[in-house]
Prior knowledge:
With 202 residues, this protein is an alpha+beta fold.
Amino acid sequence: MTGKPADSPMVHSMTAPVRSVRVAVASDLSFLVDLQKRWSNNLGFLTRPALAQYIQDAQALLVVENGQPAGYLTWTCTRIGLLRIPQVALDPAVLRSTIGTKIVNHLKRAAIRGDCSIIRLRSRSDLPANLFWPTLGFRMSGVFANPSKRNLPLFEWTMPLLSPDDIATGLLTAGKSFRPLLRSRSKPNPRPFLIQSEHQSP
């Protein structure tokens, strides 16, 4: 989803950075808009009002390093528990520093607690991010080879959130083994768990 443009206001620290992930607020909108512009060659375009709506709906996460915004992620969730990631963008200075892993894993934890079933995203086939998604547990689940301006396909990446053992047992029992699990699950919604949590680590 992101590549590596030049120039960045971020300054590397000689000590281990203090990182956190939080839900974006209205005052973060300018950062989201600016970072999207810097990655305009890599990200699908969202208007300023669209980004503002993500923030208003608490569907934008901000990753912060040493007190400064360093990247963002937007998400949506369907009623059947399909969580989609339309955009992930990181400041160029923090690429390849595990900060992308941090923000995606933060969302993953909330998605699991919020009874979502899978996380899915699409990425243009020429982007370096395609080497990143498999390291987080995503698998390529599709290739969209429709004609486009760039004549490049889109890759679809999917991360199952249910236990592989539960899925295997479900196949062997024609789905019957899922019944206790389904009875205990609520309507898929990671939002409350994102709002109430702020994960920090050195």
